[in-house]
Records
---
Amino acid sequence: MRHYKYNGTSDAGTIGWIMQRVSGIILILVVFVHFFSMLKGGEAGMMQVVTGPIAAFGVFHTFNGFKMITDDYVSCAGWRAVLYGIYWLLGIALVILAVKI
């Protein structure tokens, strides 16, 4: 398993690790807001949740999780860079789509 783990500095992923936990907690709260807004506001209430900053937390949480998995299991620096680029492009595209909705 040693060659699967990216060997960076000991604190290289600390900020990402903390942000993953913070955004996860925020997303748990959002689930309750989502259900409440669907009950009270219908589709219009849900659209306010989807197009707001909550969508950005969701996108961040998802792609930061992908990055953590990539760091752990992709040993080639070139492939890691390609995957990071794909993550950035998809993340930006999702944020743009969420704002346009």
---
Amino acid sequence: VLLVGLFFIAAGVVGVLRLPDFYTRLHALGKSDTLGVALTVGALALRSGATLTSLKILLIVAFVTLANPTATHALGRAAYRAGIAPWRRKDAL
């Protein structure tokens, strides 16, 4: 589970490096980062067993699962209001 989470985080980094504009980068990172962090931290909760630490880790997962999409939406909306234009494919004709 830990390696799957790290894969999603790495995929988000590749998306940030390869995609053309702010909005597509934000979309790629927002989706993959949420899942990657949830899986990675969830694997740590499984590793620690049924303890108070595991409960705290699961609360962190719940917070990240709620906060990350909210922050991604807020960043996208702020960029739109600031006038950052979305990338458009140039027509060859």
